[in-house]
Write a structure and sequence with these properties.
Blueprint: E1 6-10, H1 17-27, E2 31-33, E3 37-38, E4 53-54, H2 57-65, E5 69-75, E6 78-83, H3 84-92, E7 96-100, H4 103-111, E8 117-122, H5 126-136, H6 141-155, E9 163-166, H7 170-185
Parallel strand pairs: 1-7, 1-8, 2-7, 3-4, 8-9
Antiparallel strand pairs: 3-6, 5-6
Length: about 200
């Protein structure tokens, strides 16, 4: 059995990552969303092990000390992280793992030499991104400006990734992502050549 593939996806807030990931997951039966761990409280309707692995801060810190995270970060006093065992067990079982993560987290994985297919989702322009953030109607003007500033930094990191998808049209962006998944799975190094009688 060939091992699964680790896909890491990131991009600026408001670019539509969540929508694309949701549609791509429905299209690919072998693809599983990698569930992150967090110390924040569950929101209404969220389930442990489905939306996040919810932990106390002391448990999270203990797991950091034990080297159990591929990467982790702290934002506004709340920890978020990717458990090694969660990703590795999926891949060992032949399932592809997809991790949606912010750019800083992805760069930690890249700099640590974690083997994965790194995909960046970007807007057509800053104007489009700002318009999307405003349409959400959930954030103050100050927060929108902050997100745009962060997006400038995040977009400057795009050359660290393997693939770039411009989310100008949702269907096209999803098709592009599906093409990446298909092409990456056909790499020779990802194949179990021993199953073919012509391979010696």
């Amino acid at each position: 059995m060939k091992k699964g593939i680790f896909f890491v996806v990131s991009g600026p807030s408001g670019v539509g990552k969540g929508t694309i990931v949701s549609k791509v997951l429905k299209k690919n039966d072998n693809l599983r969303l990698s569930v992150s761990a967090t110390t924040r409280e569950p929101r209404t309707g969220e389930r442990d092990g489905v939306n996040y692995f919810f932990m106390t801060e002391s448990e999270f810190l203990r797991r950091i000390d034990n080297g159990e995270f591929l990467e982790y970060t702290q934002t506004y006093g709340i920890y978020y992280g990717t458990l090694k065992a969660n990703v590795e067990s999926q891949i060992a079982a032949g399932k592809d793992a997809l991790l949606e993560i912010d750019v800083k987290g992805a760069l930690k994985l890249i700099n640590a030499g974690i083997e994965a297919c790194y995909v960046f989702i970007a807007p057509k322009s800053f104007g489009v991104l700002e318009e999307r953030l405003r349409k959400r109607g959930t954030e103050s003007e100050e927060k929108i400006r902050t997100r745009i500033e962060v997006a400038h930094y995040e977009l400057s990191c795009v050359e660290k990734y393997d693939y770039l998808i411009i989310n100008d049209d949702l269907e096209t962006a999803c098709n592009d992502f599906n093409s990446i998944i298909n092409s990456f799975s056909l790499l020779v190094k990802k194949q179990n050549l021993e199953r073919y009688d012509w391979h010696k």
